[in-house]
Amino acid sequence: MTSQAFQHIIVRYAVGDRIFTEGDLGATMYIVQSGKVRLFRISAEHKRTDAVLEKGDFFGEASVIDGLSRTSSAEAIEDAELVEINATTFDRMIKANIEIAVRMLRKLSLRLRDAERRLDDLGPAPAPLAPAPRVLALGAAAGEGRSAVRLEVEGESMTFPLSDSDSLIGRYDPITDLKPDVDLSSLDLKRTVSRSHARIFRTSEGRFIAEEVGAMNSTLVNGTRLVTGRPHRLADGDRITLGAVKLVFRS
Fold it and tell me: What integer is the mean pLDDT of 57-61?
């Protein structure tokens, strides 16, 4: 989310350092460059973890937007390097790059949906179980065979079947509990793939892939880098690279 056109401050925190505390007035937000940060609240003198954030995640944006006090506390659970952005810089970034605003709106929308779901769960009647997330297992289960349309991990036997309409590729997002259709979390230990990185969808003309707005690292098809938001038609055997993860499209 950072841009070379704007000055920003890099701040570093050691394990256990408090970044801010619930109730504090704040005028800055943060983007995690490295390490991990925990957002939590104190309930009955115990820490209740709201989210664990890692590279590419942002937090504290509510105080920048509305100027109100912090609604949770934040601390480093690994040595962390953060980009600190004040309200003035934030305003300039949003005006200069609409992709930043789109990514933030998407994240805030998902958080709102999650909050609404939690409120429903607190209703007088027992809340129904949430629909099973569309997280696709690595590899086909014994006896099931392979899906006709799928992504194969290059050089391995792992397979991700693709839905008949639309499949989001990325990593699990602990902030929103969003699980993509093709979850590369276990393959991408260095976190080079964005939470919402790319999407494969079907039209009357075939299968297409498009990089999502806000993807931090590039998406390549047969070595050619995709333009964000511009669909690229796929053919059987195409090699797709997302960050450091290499896949093969099969139809």
Answer: 86
Please, what are the domains in the chain? 9-96 (2.60.120.10), 150-250 (2.60.200.20)
For residue 16, give the H/E element and its range: none
Q: Report pLDDT digits (tens) over 127-156.
A: 555 554 444 444 433 334 445 899 999 988
Could you tell me the pTM of the whole model? Answer: 0.52
Query: Residue 219: which residues within 8 A CB-CB, separation 6 or more?
Result: 197, 198, 209, 211, 225, 226, 240, 241, 242
In this structure, the number of other CB atoms found within 10 A of the CB of residue 69 comes to 14
Rg (CA), the chain: 20
Distances (CA, A) of 116 to 36, 93, 110, 195: 27, 30, 10, 21
Structure tokens at 173: 């997002």
Q: In this structure, are residues 54 and 38 in contact, taking their beta carbons and an 8 Å threshold?
A: no
